[in-house]
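Thread: quick sanity check before group meeting

JM: Hey all, I'm pulling together slides for Thursday and realized we never actually wrote out the predicted structure for the chain we discussed last week. Dropping the sequence here so it's in one place. If anyone has concerns about the input, flag it before I start.
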Amino acid sequence: MFGRMPRLGAHMSIAGGLPRAVERARATGCDALQIFTKSSGQWRARPLPESEIAKFRQASEQLDVRPVIAHASYLINLGAPDETLHQRSQAALGEELDRAETLGLAGLVLHPGSYTTTSEEEGLKRIATGLVAVLAERTERKAMLLLEHTAGQGTNLGHSFEQLRDIVSLTEDATGVQVGLCLDTCHLVAAGYELSSEAGYTETMQQLDACLGFDRVRAIHLNDSKTPLGSRIDRHMHIGGGYVGMNGFRQILTDPRLQNIPMVLETPKSGPATPASTEPDPLDLENLSTLRSLLANRSACGVPAE
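JM (edit): ok, ran it. Output follows.
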């Protein structure tokens, strides 16, 4: 879709309005972008004015920041055994998918959910049931739902390729709607999938391909992991500062099977964005520079430069 170089970007604040996030992305040197379309810590979402939608779409096109994906609210838990929370989560997910479609986004990233007081098996079924209810009403849309691979903290589900395969299979069999995948490098390592060594990376990618297929991967979060392999603890670090390591990112960035997939940072920032400011965060600049240095040296890894 975009040639043989991955489009790199970062998650940006929507303080000051959605178009401001695109402006921040371009000022930072991003080619791709991830946003929240609403407050991530609230159920309610403010209506999107037509003028803001139009300005957002125009900014993305004119500034060549694309694709843009959204991340769903952290409050959503389709695996919840509590029926009230389960229904509320379905409604919130439906609203977020509708907002993503209205804004012309490529996809919406969702943490599958947690089983809390039940079991893994029951939680996986609850998640699939919730997805079926939401997607069955939205079969004709361009914004794809992207299930994010998780670190597996507590009772979080989606930390193994097999779990994601089961959710996807149950959902697609019932709706006929394709479900995509978002990989997170920190989460993969925390969940026990090695990326740093050549042998470990090869094994991880073989498992991914066998369970889900590379064609299902539509976005990648580039985050280093503060905690070691298999820790099941989700702590994001700056690129090269953790257990993914520079070699792990080099292998991701130069893997020909991943070249057309947008890759965005979710690494720590210096501070919150103010509504009027589009000044680049120096930590985003540093992390993007590190990633691009790995791409610049891709020929040294046996990958022909463009």
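AS: nice. The domain at 8-301 is CATH 3.20.20.150 (TIM Barrel). The two ends are 15 Å apart (CA to CA).
JM: adding both to the slides.
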